[in-house]
Amino acid sequence: MLLARVMPCLLLRNAALVKTVQFKNPSYVGDPINAIRIYNEKEVDELIFLDITATVEGKRPQLKLLADIASECFMPVAYGGGISRMDDVDAIFSIGIEKVSINSHAVAEPTFVTRVADKYGTQAVVVSIDVKRSIFGKYEVCTRGGRTATGRDPIAFALEMEKAGAGEIILTSIDRDGTGKGYDIDLLKRVASAVTIPVIASGGAGRIEDCGIAVREGGASAAALGSMAVYHGRNRAVLINFPTREELDLVLPN
Amino acid sequence: MIVIVDYGMGNLGSILNMLKKIGVKAKISSDRSDIDSAGKLILPGVGAFDTAMRHLHESGLLDALNEAVLHRKKPTIGLCLGMQLLTQGSEEGNLPGLGWIPAETRRFRFPAELSNLKVPHMGWNSISVSPDKPLVRDLRDPSRFYFVHSYHVVLRDQTDAAATTTYGYEFVSMIQKGHIMGTQFHPEKSHQYGMKVLSNFAELA
């Protein structure tokens, strides 16, 4: 049986690696290429890079930086941020990135997801869904780095994306992002039980046990680590780091 | 010197970086003279079969490659699509392959009860190795490799297989016929396991 994957989810702002709390206050945590070299040593299953300012600043993917990233990675890479054109998707795959992650443009133009899936296969298409809980306790899909509330229900939207051709969903809780309070298991459960494609839990992991909870209780196929991959300890000292396979095996279901 | 043949099919940076990391002299080149003087060749490849064959024809490197591999018998390894190009042809395209290995490239086809298996086969998977092939010498057990492909090689002579992998059924994931080799997975995206395969290749006499 395939083991549940656990992967760093790294945020880019221009050429720098940053980390947010609830999608706000991006703080500098380092250089992406240096970080990749450490994750190579740690033999992580996969890497996710998300450019958090591309869409809101109206920029296209930073192809030069992505080529450097792909060259350094000894593991597969997914990239998201500012993807809304097929020629950018073509460029990203030819650079050697294995998966594209589509967020704002999946809401704006769902058929774009289908076109990319038709051309490159569903396994190469990730739809990233950012979710906020409203003051009335209702879950809502947000785009543009959490800035725009769409009024869409995450379960219905996830189902629509599965039908459109998404091979995988990264489900991020904006409220939990950077807090270390654990994944939003209620949200995960609802989405993961509705779709048949793998769901990657994201937002809130504070301890390694959270990965096991996301898989066992939330039904996630994989877990993304943000803060845990770039910070160490209660004072959030910057330290590019990752749990070992042995440590992960202890908390993940066999 | 290992030459990574650049014929315009994707980014070869991670292959070069991995060879650098294991301390092997290598360069990326699309020059005929580099192929002539190379000790060994790596034939990479991502994308479609016919596009790759067309690029090889248009690059003007085909004669040099045939000369280096078939006559001068330089150790050569095809990676991913590069392994499929070694065969006589693929169901994916109409152009003949390089034909260096008696084999065909076919699409994954599963019986009804396995129809939940997705194509492409994408992700980390293991291999079973043939004990007597130098390319798979001293691979750590268990090893895992990163695959992404919709087509796979079907050998005419099973003794050319260096390793197999199971996805729905058993298929050939590594080949070695004397000095001609191939891996269906991406060694350059498979951490220390892929590194070991490339270093085995580099150490071949």
Can you describe this structure in just a few lines?
Chain A is an alpha/beta fold and 254 residues long. Chain A has helices at residues 32-42, 63-72, 86-95, 104-108, 110-120, 154-164, 185-194, 209-216, 227-230, 245-251, and strands at 5-13, 16-21, 24-30, 47-51, 77-80, 99-102, 125-133, 139-143, 148-149, 168-173, 199-202, 222-225, 231-232, 237-238.
Provide a descriptive summary of the structure in words:
- The complex is a heterodimer of chains A (254) and B (205).
- Chain A has 254 residues and is an alpha/beta fold.
- Chain A contains ten helices and 14 strands.
- In chain A, helix 2 (63-72) runs parallel beside helix 3 (86-95).
- Chain B has 205 residues and is of the alpha/beta class.
- Chain B is 26% helix and 28% strand.
- Chain B has six helices and twelve strands.
- In chain B, a hairpin with a 2-residue loop joins strand 11 (169-177) and strand 12.
- The two termini of chain B are 13 Å apart.
- The mean pLDDT of chain B is 94.
- The chains are: A alpha/beta (254), B alpha/beta (205).
- The interface between A and B is medium-sized, with 23 and 26 residues.
Q: In total, how many beta strands of chain B? A: 12
Largest sheet composition of chain A: 8 strands, parallel, barrel
Distance between the termini of chain B: 13 Å
Share of helix of chain B, binned: 25-40%
Amount of beta strand of chain B: 25-35%
Question: Helix tally of chain B?
Answer: 6
In helices, the fraction of residues of chain A equals 25-40%
Estimate the global geometry of chain A from the Cα principal axes. globular
The 3D shape of chain B can be described as globular
Query: Alpha-carbon distance between the termini of chain A?
Result: 9 Å
Give start-end ranges of low-pLDDT stretches of chain A.
Answer: none
Low-confidence stretches of chain B: none
Number of strands of chain A: 14
What assembly state would you assign to the polypeptide chains in this entry? heterodimer
